[in-house]
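Subject: Predicted fold for DUF2992 domain-containing protein, 106 residues

User T.R. writes:
Posting the sequence so we have a shared reference for the thread.
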Amino acid sequence: MGTSEPNDLVIYNFILKNYSKISFYKVGSEQIINTKKKINPKRLQRIARKQVNNEFQGTKAQKTLQKQHELIKKERKKKNSKEKDERRKIMFKKKQAKKKEKHKGR
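User M.O. replies:
I've generated the structure tokens; pasting them so everyone works from the same file.
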């Protein structure tokens, strides 16, 4: 049975024989760790297709009009969501008032 760790002599001989093969690097921010996840090829194709289709080909005026249209669309969505929230709040208040009214007579 041997020891679990090599002794100093074995390590020294290993370093002398294999010094040119050993790579040294700084520990810290300069250390490069390859942690990129492998992306599924089909997913990669979908992403590439979306990027190609999303690029609008047209004149400057057409691009400007499209941006303007998108801004109007976003504003409309914000306005509609605010109105929807207000309606929900009003309905909630009505329901609460109705519940209170039911329990008043007891």
